[in-house]
Predict the structure.
Amino acid sequence: ERAAGPSAEADGKPSLLAEDAQPQTPGRTSRGLKRVASPELKADGLSEEESPLKPTADGEDEAVTEADMKRRKTEREWLRHKRTLLLKEEGLSRKREELAAKVQKRRAQADRLGVATMSKEEQSRYQAMVGAGGASILATEAKK
């Protein structure tokens, strides 16, 4: 293995790798320069995309009015609100679907358990009632 850093290798020969040849300076990584926002934008709390100056077709910078900034802010808040409501609705519908699936699975297991404890004759009668409409036949049987 190669020794760490720009020192000579274990066999006494100097390393000729490009990364060893370039000295590391503060503010520069091995991949390139760091991207830093300008101090004016940091102080205002604005990102580079939201700078207070807007270029026009003539190439001049036009100051963004307070009304535009307020409108954009309220629009972002509204979109964020809509997104959170949609996420909540999706979560609720997913929970309802999961609950319905659990109930259906539980009923199916109960039916299988009930059928398994019945005799062959009772099973055929049960299948005839459930397959033919179930509730109406059960209601007439209960009256007898």
About this structure: The chain is about 60% helix and 5% strand. The first strand starts at residue 53 and ends at 55.
